[in-house]
Amino acid sequence: MSARGITIWRFAATLPDAHPRADLRRMTTPLIALPAEVMAALADCGLLGPGEAPMGQALSGGVSSDIWRVDLRQGPVCVKRALPQLRVAARWEAPVSRNAFEVAWIEVAGAINPAAVPRLRGHDARAGLFIMDFLEPARHRLWKTELREGRADAAPAAAVGARLVQIHAATAGRAEISQRFPTDAIFHAIRLAPYLEAAAEQHPPAAAALHALVLATANTREALVHGDVSPKNIMLGPDGPIFLDAECAWYGDPAFDLAFCLNHLLLKCLWAPHASEGFARCFRALVESYARGVNWTRWPLLEARAARLLPGLLLARIDGKSPVEYITGETQKNLVREFALVLLLAPVMELNLVLGRWMRELPA
Ligand SMILES: Nc1ncnc2c1ncn2[C@@H]1O[C@H](COP(=O)(O)OP(=O)(O)O)[C@@H](O)[C@H]1O
Ligand SMILES: [Mg+2]
Question: How far is CA 26 from CA 4, 212, 232, 300, in A?
Fold first, then answer.
């Protein structure tokens, strides 16, 4: 990194496509002027040619960052800048420095498996932004969209499990990696507090169980955790799943990543009920491929932690500070609440037991 906080990753130039396949979104999203800091960072990172002054296109989906597609002469890139205040209804602050930890996570994970992350192009630590390759929609689908449309194939789920455990296994017990992520406080502020502790406030009978879960999770320091392994942060590309949005990166309990992702597969059963059986297959495939790669600890120990976290995270997505947007009816909310509360008070140790019970709870 330079004194100005700039890091540049250099590659052989990617020639712009002579006939770029303009997707519909690209043509319909308005072009906007980029903030001066973004233009300066693009220049400092050597990405602008003489006289080049690109415009940006805001990408949707982000709640915690400004994120733009920028079409440079040398090809499209994606710029991500952390916002000081998240765009969610409940007040929820997160330090902008998390942007640098996202860059660090991408670097570490990319050294383990370059196909699992977007390629980094530049980082301006002072401006709190970084630049990565833009993943072309023509070749990359958001996993969330696939699931929403009922395409619940087990293969991508198994690939997600395999890539996730590969990153966990390669970082487990590595003090030099742990030192790059002094993020215990950030992880508490943006994961444990708004999810598990906020749910505890709403459910006094389960508060002790939820606080015990927070403590057990916070005190487990085993591997590099992504912290937001959600289908909305996973792109399925020609070389497999790509993890985005690592700003919750933490050196801690890998069971959190596993449970966090499985939680989304359970909740999707209420969003696209016709595909529930497919989501259950995804769940089992992900667990199986993940378990196969666990070599730094005994799988049953990790599985038991994930199986305890799962009901906590389910409850958190109904009554925490970041409720899922697609469960709005009280009947569905109560189904999740009752299911989660029973399991929080009488935990099971196996993930497939949680799944089996969930599938029996779902309306026929
Ligand atoms: N490198 C990229 N290429 C293409 N699209 C991207 C890229 N990074 C993010 N996106 C899109 O922008 C959305 C928001 O990005 P994300 O990193 O998840 O930000 P936030 O922290 O605000 O959720 C993603 O869901 C994805 O659709
Ligand atoms: Mg995201």
Answer: 33, 47, 19, 46
